[in-house]
């Protein structure tokens, strides 16, 4: 795959699927692993996001949260706090594969 900013999940049910992807910014490229996370806390993420340290260690860098829009439809957001990177996940352009999600960056609100 030559696309940037995506997560390829291993199943249609994103709530329980694992994923691998890439986040590219002007100053770095992060290969990421997305792992389901369960918690009794309703504000907890649905997934933890990991990247490799310079020495190759898996480090937690962020999370994926499931939210609902004004009409009550679910959607997912991704956040990597140390980078100040925030994004929504959405259908990858030109694809019918629901497991391939584009990472659509957005600026945080003041």
Which key terms come to mind for this protein?
8-stranded antiparallel β-barrel, mainly beta, 110 residues
Description:
With 110 residues, this protein is mainly beta. The chain has one domain. The protein has no helices and eight strands. The protein has an eight-stranded antiparallel β-barrel with strand order 1-2-3-4-5-6-7-8. Strand 6 and strand 7 form a beta hairpin. The mean pLDDT is 91. This is DUF736 domain-containing protein. Keywords: Plasmid. It holds the Pfam family DUF736. InterPro entries: DUF736 (IPR007948).
What's the topology here?
Elements: E1 6-9, E2 19-24, E3 29-36, E4 47-52, E5 58-68, E6 74-80, E7 85-91, E8 100-106
Number of domains: 1
**Major β-sheet, in short?**
8 strands, antiparallel, barrel
Continuous helix count: 0
Helix content: under 10%
In a few lines, what is going on in this structure?
It comes from Rhizobium favelukesii. With 110 residues, the chain is mainly β. It has strands spanning 6-9, 19-24, 29-36, 47-52, 58-68, 74-80, 85-91, 100-106.
């Amino acid at each position: 795959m030559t696309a940037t900013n995506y997560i390829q999940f291993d199943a249609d049910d994103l709530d329980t699927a694992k994923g691998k992807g890439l986040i590219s910014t002007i100053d770095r490229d992060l290969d990421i692993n997305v792992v389901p996370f369960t918690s009794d806390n309703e504000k907890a993420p649905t997934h933890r996001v990991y990247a490799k340290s310079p020495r190759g260690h898996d480090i937690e860098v962020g999370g994926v949260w499931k939210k609902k829009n004004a009409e009550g439809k679910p959607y997912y957001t991704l956040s990597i706090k140390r980078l100040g990177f925030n994004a929504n996940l959405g259908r990858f352009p030109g694809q019918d594969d629901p497991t391939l999600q584009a990472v659509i960056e957005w600026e945080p609100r003041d």
